[in-house]
Design goal:
Length: about 850
Amino acid sequence: MSTLPAAVPVPPPGAGDTVPVTGFDALRSAGIAALQRLCGAVWTDFNLHDPGVTTLEQLVYGLTDLGYRTGFDIADYLTGPDGAIDYDGLALYPPEAILPCGALTPDDYRRVLYGALPDLADVWIAAGDDGLLHVDVLGAADAQPAAPQPGELARRVRRVLAAQRALGTDVAQVRELRPRTYYLRGEIDTIGECNQAEILARIVFECGAYLSSGLSARRLRDLLAEGSAPEDTFDGPASRHGYVAVRAGATDGAPVTVSELIAVIQRIDGVRRIRSLAIVDELLQPCAAIPRDRAAGTCPVLPFPSDEVTIELLRLQPERGIEYGVSEQTVPPAPSWRAANRQLYDEGRLELAKLRFEQSAFRADEGSAHTRYALPAGRRRALAGYYSVQHEFPAVYGVGKFGLPASASAERQAQARQLQGFLYPMEQLMANFLQNLQDVPTLFSLHDDGARTYFAQYLDAPAVPGVGDLYVDGPQRTAARVQHVLARHDNHADRKGRVYDYLLALYGETFAQAGLRRFNQYHPHDTDAWLLDAKRRLLAALDILGADRGRGCDTTQPLDAPGAIAPLAWRAAILLGFDGGERYRSLGPALDGAALTLVDEDAGAGAATPLPAPADWLPVPPADAGTGEAPEGLRAPGETLPEALFRDAALLSNYRLERGGGGYVLHVLAGADWQALGSYAHRRDAVAAAHAGVARFAAANRACEGMHIVEHVLLRPRTPHEGDAAFYDARLSIVLPRWTLRCADRRFRNFVEETVREHCPAHLQPAFLWLAPSQMGWFEALHEEWRAALRIWSETADDERDDRTLALQEAAAALVHFLRAHRKEPT
């Protein structure tokens, strides 16, 4: 009898679980070590003829197949049955959706405008300390239509900025500039074999670009071809067409000198030597430099010469050994030279048009907006297919595809069945492992319909020979029992929550739920599912709530449009467990969809001490929400209810049962007093009514929870030098209801304020208004009137705003008066 090979160490007790297993030999060694530890004094020689070792080796061989199937590319595991990866369903955002950020700096706004408006030749933006943007724009000289309506470009600029502006920022003015013309005069030698028309066009093009504010656009596909990394391509705000770059120092206000233009021209291919160069204005008077100021509503441009005088200012001469001994002022050009020069400029004008077309045509091409980085594409693999280890056993064991011969005795057949039954648990575990690999997309999916994170498969006879004879029940009941056994170990909320945490971490996000868990009054029995859904909502909208978390509302949209509220309100709604949040909605009280009038509590009276319930009153036991009707006392007669009753009727612990008179009386604690709701002959009817009332009023309370964000900069007087700057600069008002079950809790109010401050841009100061029901109705009426006036004013041309401005200022003044009267000053 041989001894155990020395190569297999005997681990100490408990160490077998930590042995690294990465292949057949390692798995076999770990298995034998575990057998040694478990067998103790029961000796075996561990030779190959030992059935235990044979069984171990077959199971180890099967495990190597499982290990092999875990070595594919991650994209293969995420590929669905249709051969594609559901990126949206897996919250895997492409670079162009998740990497750009919201506009914040003046250059960010310039890039956004330049990418969104193809007929915008140039744009300058100055940002004041008061959060107001002063915008100067220059329309393209060849924009279509040839004669746009006055102010049309400014109106479209305002519309783009309204959708992209940051919180606490607004556009003070948009001024359309007029071009101020300059020309170049001088003599330039070119290389003989180069096309002079192309060189001339390039000189005008490059010098004009240097004179601009430094914006330039490139095709995204060109950047992709050059190997630009996504984090570089999408650094800053997203551009609608292509990639917009900004040249550093182009907007510093310094005048452009002749020496700077000489440096630009010398870099152009085909230029040999610059004999002389000067700058002249539109009156052909010499200028030492080109000023970049825009004080008079003009900006410098360098047009292509077009008349008989300007085409003779800049002369190009091919290199042919010709030297100029005298200047053009002393020796007039010959008539033949004039004709050749005119032809050169005609050809140069066409070349310049080609350059400008190549540089800007794609800015109007919608197709370029669909150019994207190639996303990983996986290969659909049949990972769940299980091949039984029984096929690998020696034929003498009587298992596998061929089994035993018909002549085998009943005892021998029973022994084979015993071995198959012994192998079944291991095989079921391995098959389940493969099913979990196959269902990786389901595990990571945002569409969480099955409430499962562990997956099992039913092993039938083709996969595992003879297994069908071992089952007591049919296929459906057996599959259900296997899944039931697995479900006992499946903490779905915890495992799915950790999956969502991982996905959030991919984008640098977290969802701290410990604080929110304390305020689960509406979800006492499904807190984990409620928190899980909040994480899912955050992931599903992360492309908006991440990059645009600091964006303001779009004032050009109707109030109920998707972009008409600040993403901060939507993000905070998810983090605070509010319903909805992605659109504006009234927070006024309602019951079963109908408006409800609540009697306000006296906010200054302080909370009264609740009366204790009599000792013989019984608490309502927890149960599933009843299907009965709410008690008569909660029917809101005349559509009016006390604020305390609306709030406290949503909490089951506020209900009591009083026995007497052959039945039960249901009571609810509303504020400090107990109120009888109705009498019931049977206890089950009273309990069902209490649960129905809780469900009904919990839904009504949830519908009231939310917030309105008012940016004070949008409320500013449109007349200069009026108003209190401290009220309008970098201030927000956060308006919330005070009457709901959670919002009446001062601890929850503190949690709300801390959350909003944490996710609000650091330079803004929010103030919180916790309003009573009647105050909320008053606020919403003023707010909606002001937003409607602001939308109309934003869409009106500057020269037609007089009447609109008066209406806007009246609506804003009324809202300002309300906010001043009710806001809680920050501490």
